[in-house]
Design a protein that fits this description.
The complex is a heterodimer of chains A (about 280) and B (about 375). With about 280 residues, chain A is mainly alpha-helical. Chain A contains ten helices and no strands. The longest helix of chain A is centred in the C-terminal third of the chain and has 37 residues. Classes of the chains: A mainly alpha (about 280), B alpha/beta (about 375).
Chain lengths: ~280, ~375
């Protein structure tokens, strides 16, 4: 834990302006998502048909949608949900991928089986997974998370398998083995912690992609359903009024863009830091 | 030879098959060794001759292809995995690169506690006390327990590597080039530490190295390896005094001479002979024939096996024992080369011990 904190401090010290801005944006969005509903008293679900499709003004700082709901409140609620879906997908897919990747690296006999099955999973586009899962259990947040986690898992597993393979031929692993410890302890105490920085970098990059993909699923109607405030769903609803009230679709789309861009930039610079230390 | 040896290796082999099925590399080819209690056996040879592989195979970090290994009367190669793990507390490794062999994410206290945890030795308080004791034993302070590998100097890291090996109170420690990654001044400190620990704890060492200066300093007996085989075993005195194998003589001659004036005199005319690749699969003939200055026709036909030419002095050479070897290998010249190296190590050790910990923390 101490080592992780020290790493983090080192990364910040060496990072450039891009990293800091990206980090600030990601942190800012996270804080807004967490604290927003208590700070901005805007109801995302209160319908007011007399004030539908209004531009920004006193009543609603960012205007209203076709049912007169305040867009600011809906953006905050949508941000919460979108980030939560992304986090859940990356966490579930990432930890499953971590376990499978480590197992594949450690047990040569399991390696071929695990990797070939994951190759099959990898060959399906995420959107197709979404369709299949929606067909089985209906549209909703669960379907989004399941399909995104499923498509994250094989990518993470490959990354971890490669990293663990490199770590396992290092001297400290041989030293640990010569102490007489069990395979499981060797894996969890020695190999896994040294794969974590790779996992964190990869997950940051993947988080941006997952948010985008989740919004796409919701946009085409496979994810969360109206009236739930989710960024992709909001874009889908707003597109019908793109010519009279462009802000209804553009604002949530812009927010998606900012999230994805910040995550990609942050992931890239984290990768640079980790790579530099590795070489 | 009354007490049984701590480690007895008989006919150990490790063959690697080429990936295309094209041939066999005999990395270790029928090595037999014995290490007595309290003895330091040095295993020397050029890089790639199978020194490290022998040690790793003997203690099953790599699975050997054949042979027998008895450790304290137990057949190591026949142990079940769980029994082998339990057994590992009795024999431990010290590795060449102390930075690479310490987990970068663990502090020294955790690294030293780990062998105790793995072998369920003592409760929390006892383990902490043991860690502090180990750190003091290798000349570090208790405050080093909270440091990470990148915060220590090379010498300090290797001290931790040694402390880790000693944590479970082993009887045999395999030191795989333990000082070759260190500064010469730090080498002397670490070698002194190893000698002190051996005396205090009654350890046996299998000491793998290519540095004959180090051998002279720490070893009781020396085994010289070439192309996966042992070509000569003798006590340090007789090996340095009367090398019986031409390869041993060449090795001794190749010991770096620090005085440029003497460097010329010790030049070996055969030194430029091309170094052959690994011993070919066909085992007929002595693998050193191509580089040997005293080879005879028989050497190409028939591989020599180890035979005794004096009490405790074995050599695998058809001409072993016949030789007073040619000019540059005379006793006086050889021992003076070794003496110079030894004297330098001694001087450095003295200088180092006068500024012991001070010096260690400055050198990196």
């Amino acid at each position: 834990m101490m080592a992780m904190l020290q790493d983090l401090a080192g990364i910040l010290r060496r990072s450039g302006a891009t990293t800091r801005v990206a980090l600030a944006v990601v942190c800012g969005l996270g804080i807004v998502a967490l604290a927003g509903p208590w700070v901005v008293a805007a109801d995302p679900y209160g319908i007011d048909l007399h004030h539908a499709l209004q531009g920004p003004g006193w009543r609603a700082p960012l205007g209203t949608d076709e049912l007169g709901r305040g867009i600011l409140g809906r953006l905050i609620a949508g941000l919460r949900l979108t980030l939560a879906l992304g986090l859940a997908s990356v966490a579930i897919g990432g930890s499953a991928g971590l376990a499978l990747g480590l197992a594949a690296a450690y047990y040569p006999r399991a390696d071929q089986w695990i990797m070939r099955v994951l190759d099959v999973v990898l060959s399906f586009p995420t959107i197709l997974f979404g369709l299949a899962i929606v067909a089985i259990c209906g549209p909703g947040a669960e379907a989004v998370v399941t399909s995104l986690a499923l498509s994250t898992m094989p990518l993470t597993a490959r990354m971890i398998r490669a990293t663990a393979g490199i770590e396992m031929v290092r001297d400290y692993v041989e030293a640990a083995r010569s102490l007489g410890m069990s395979d499981r302890r060797l894996m969890w105490r020695h190999v896994m912690p040294n794969c974590l920085s790779t996992l964190i970098v990869f997950s940051t990059l993947r988080f941006g992609q997952v948010v985008l993909m989740g919004s796409i699923l919701s946009f085409v109607g496979l994810g969360t359903q109206p009236p739930v405030a989710e960024l992709g769903t909001m874009v889908a609803e707003g597109r019908n009024f793109l010519f009279y009230a462009p802000h209804v679709a553009i604002l949530p789309a812009l927010l998606i863009f900012i999230i994805v861009l910040a995550c990609n930039l942050l992931g890239d610079s984290l990768r640079d830091v980790v790579d530099r230390r590795g070489s | 030879m009354s007490a049984p040896p701590v480690l007895r290796i008989e006919g150990l082999t490790k063959h690697y098959l080429a990936r295309d099925g094209g041939g066999v590399t005999r990395a270790v080819d029928g090595v037999s060794l014995e290490i007595m209690a309290g003895e330091t056996l040095a295993l020397v040879g050029e890089s790639g001759c199978g020194k490290s592989t022998t040690a790793r195979c003997a203690l099953r970090l790599i699975a050997p292809s054949g042979g027998r290994v008895m450790f304290e009367g137990v057949d190591v190669l026949a142990l079940a995995p769980a029994e082998l793990r339990r057994m590992r507390r009795r024999f431990q490794f010290v590795f060449q690169d102390p930075f690479a062999s310490l987990n970068p994410r663990m502090c020294m206290g955790a690294i030293l506690e780990e062998p105790l945890l793995v072998h369920r030795m003592g409760d929390r308080a006892r383990r902490e006390a043991r860690v502090a004791e180990l750190l003091v034993m290798v000349g570090l302070g208790p405050d080093h327990a909270r440091r990470f590998a990148h915060e220590l100097s090379g010498g300090q890291r290797q001290r931790v590597g040694i402390a880790r090996a000693l944590a479970t109170s082993p009887s045999l420690v395999i030191c795989d080039e333990p000082v070759s990654a260190l500064d010469v001044s730090v080498q002397a400190q670490v070698l002194n530490l190893l000698s002190d620990l051996k005396r205090a704890l009654g350890l046996s060492y299998l000491f793998i190295t290519h540095d004959l200066g180090v051998v002279r300093r720490v070893a009781d007996r020396v085994a010289v390896m070439l192309h996966g085989r042992i070509v000569e075993i003798a006590t340090v005195g007789s090996l340095f005094g009367q090398p019986a194998h031409p390869y041993t003589a060449r090795l001794l001659d190749a010991t770096p001479v620090l005085d440029p004036a003497r460097r010329q005199a010790a030049h070996d005319p055969g030194a430029e002979a091309p170094a052959p690749a690994f011993r070919p699969a066909g085992p007929e003939g002595c693998s050193y024939t191509g580089r040997c200055a005293v080879a005879i026709a028989r050497c190409a036909r028939e591989a020599p096996s180890l035979r005794a030419i004096a009490e405790g002095h074995l050599v695998a050479c058809h001409r072993g024992g016949e030789l007073p070897l040619p000019a540059p290998f005379e006793d006086a010249a050889l021992s003076s080369v070794a003496q110079r190296r030894l004297a330098l190590l001694d001087r450095l050790a003295d200088a180092a011990s006068s500024s012991c910990n001070e010096g260690a923390s400055h050198v990196d």
